[in-house]
Amino acid sequence: MRALVRETRLHPGALIAPLFICPGEGIRRPISSMPGVFNLSIDEAIRDAGEAAKLGIGGFLLFGLPESKDEAGSGAWHEDGIVQRALRAMKRERALDSALLIADVCLCEYTSHGHCGMVRKDGEGHEIENDSSVELIARTAASLARAGADVVAPSDMMDGRVAAIRSSLDDADLHDTPVLSYASKFASAFYGPFREAADSAPQFGDRRSYQMDGANRREAMREIELDLMEGADMVLMKPALPYLDIIREARDRFDVPLGAYQVSGEYAMLQAAFERGWLDRERAMMESLVSIRRAGADFIVTYFASAAAKLL
Ligand code: PBG
Question: Which candidate, 18, 154, 202, 308, has a CA 20 to 30 Å from the CA of 61?
Fold first, then answer.
């Protein structure tokens, strides 16, 4: 009876697994704050992705750990960059045909200072420059799409980047590559473990000059609206669990595909409780995912993607 009248369902096709790709071969480096998540070299990533694809997972979100970093994050748009290489290799794998390859578009993994854009010295302090960053981000998106990304997903939160990415894709004849914009992204403590995984912690300051204040719901709606006007095809909201009200409001307002990102801190928090035996692993994992769907997300980016798909 419960199954018959259930209002919200989970299915593997609605789950996206993040992948952290690093240089080398045969590398599978654990991330201490995210048990079960690894930095993977391309060959290992292909193996894991193949298994996840067999479970019917919807796709993968790719992040890269470059060999070296610089002030401008040039590794992000390098034709032979780490994610570009991974995309080309993954596109050759028949076993991954069914899975969508989404490339995260940001500079923070590639800049020596760890910010998502260009930094200008400003007296004693620093400024993150919006417009010069947008140019590099647009260049990065085109490079990733050219390498094989099915979707590009800008996560930097600079103003105007969706329009810039759209025209940079169109100029490169990549008219069919959709933009999944992280339109509603809050400056959150829950990204902590990710910055270990992606080696992207800012070396000074924080991300509050470009990511949103967690107290602001109306601002989140305005950010989404602007990104849609600029040409975003889909919207990603994050974090998920602490912001379910934002997901619900976006669902009620906007008739576009909507995803939510259950971020690293949400995963770490649950894992820590599982390790202590304080929460039931399967039930808590599934409940968290159903809640995000119930709030209105069509799809979920989650480090639980494979584990949940297995259960489903
Ligand atoms: C890059 C980016 C971040 C995340 C996704 N893309 C980190 C940040 O903004 O600091 C966080 C994902 C997670 O915590 O799992 N800008």
Answer: 202
